[in-house]
């Protein structure tokens, strides 16, 4: 088993505080949600994780969905760890979306279709067209089939991420689901995962936008994130001090 996955599972099961699992939960939820516009700070995310309470920050307004989606990300991360070694399927991807979006205001909208593919057309950013709803099932099936034919390394995972985001199969939450899938697939194939830093949001978006012409931007952003997470892993995977 991947040593990183083994440690994450061990710490999760034993409720260890302050370890790699604890730090990754906060780091991943904060950055991934922040990329999508969450106003929660890193410290507020930590406070929610560690105390299950919310720490206000002056008079800044916080959307209740930001808090719910932070809690949901913790749950989705746990599920992702549980199925990390399972072959990636559309069912896993849909379950991640359901876990991320349940209980939010979006779930009350019947057109949102939490845990299922989108019903309405959507765009990425400014006028970037995505796959039409009727075509999503076929394109997702084709993407999955092609992905599983390959020997999986970092480049294949990044390439899958781009095509997944281009399809944009869900009404919302595609970025967070996509980044959880990247983390899962790195664990599944004994690779160091990527946690994209929200400070690199513009580089990440540029990488997705320009990937067809120049894949190096997205690859470099992900590999830089991998290097940063490797530093955290190296700290926690040090051998214990002998008595």
UniProtKB/TrEMBL annotation:
| Residues bound to ATP | 172-179, 204-205
Q: What is this protein's record name?
A: Fic/DOC family protein
What are the catalytic residues? 168
What the entry lists under PANTHER family is as follows: FIDO DOMAIN-CONTAINING PROTEIN, FIDO DOMAIN-CONTAINING PROTEIN DDB_G0283145
Q: Which organism is it from?
A: Allofournierella massiliensis
- Source taxonomy: Bacteria, Bacillati, Bacillota, Clostridia, Eubacteriales
- Which InterPro entries is this protein grouped with? Fido (IPR003812), Fido-like_dom_sf (IPR036597), Fido_containing (IPR040198)
The residues forming a coiled coil are: none
- Which superkingdom does the taxonomy of this entry point to? Bacteria
| Residues marked Important for autoinhibition of adenylyltransferase activity (site) | 36
GO MF term set: ATP binding
Keyword match Protein transport: no
Domain Fido: start-end pairs: 88-238
Q: Kindly state which keywords UniProt assigns to this record, in alphabetical order.
A: ATP-binding, Nucleotide-binding
């Amino acid at each position: 088993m991947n040593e990183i996955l083994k440690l994450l599972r061990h710490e999760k099961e034993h409720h260890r505080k302050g370890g790699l699992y604890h730090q990754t939960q906060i780091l991943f939820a904060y950055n991934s949600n922040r990329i999508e516009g969450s106003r929660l700070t890193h410290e507020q995310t930590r406070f929610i994780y560690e105390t299950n309470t919310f720490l206000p920050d002056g008079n800044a307004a916080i959307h209740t969905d930001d808090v719910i989606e932070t809690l949901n990300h913790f749950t989705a991360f746990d599920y992702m760890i549980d199925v990390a070694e399972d072959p990636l399927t559309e069912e896993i991807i849909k379950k991640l979306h359901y876990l991320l979006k349940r209980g939010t205001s979006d779930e009350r909208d019947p057109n949102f279709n939490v845990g299922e593919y989108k019903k309405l057309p959507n765009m990425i950013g400014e006028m970037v067209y995505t796959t039409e709803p009727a075509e999503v099932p076929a394109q997702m099936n084709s993407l999955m089939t092609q992905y599983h034919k390959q020997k999986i390394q970092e480049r294949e995972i990044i390439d899958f991420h781009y095509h997944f985001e281009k399809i944009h199969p869900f009404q919302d939450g595609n970025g967070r689901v996509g980044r959880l899938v990247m983390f899962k697939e790195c664990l599944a194939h004994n690779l160091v995962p990527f946690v994209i830093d929200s400070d690199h949001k513009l580089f990440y978006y540029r990488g997705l936008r320009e990937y067809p012409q120049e894949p190096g931007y997205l690859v470099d952003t992900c590999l830089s994130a991998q290097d940063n997470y490797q530093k955290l892993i190296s700290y926690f995977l040090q051998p214990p001090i002998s008595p």
